[in-house]
Specification:
mainly alpha, about 70 residues
């Protein structure tokens, strides 16, 4: 999941700092979830999806298909 989140951010041509700014958090927040040092709850995942600009149901479907 963390690799997919990073890929979505990169596909949107957003830096970790810009995503953090959109979320109103410190850049380390983005770095930690992308490195797997922090887990996300559902609300955080949805906020990230909105900030980065991807469709959460589509993301989850692709995540399930990758197993």
């Amino acid at each position: 999941m963390r690799e997919m989140l990073k890929a979505e951010r990169e596909k949107a041509k957003l830096s970790p700092a810009l995503v953090a700014d959109k979320l109103g958090v410190n850049q380390t927040y983005v770095s930690k979830y992308e490195k797997g040092e922090r887990r996300l709850d559902l609300i955080e995942f949805l906020e990230i999806a909105e900030a980065v600009g991807f469709d959460p149901p589509d993301f989850i479907k692709r995540l399930q298909d990758s197993k």
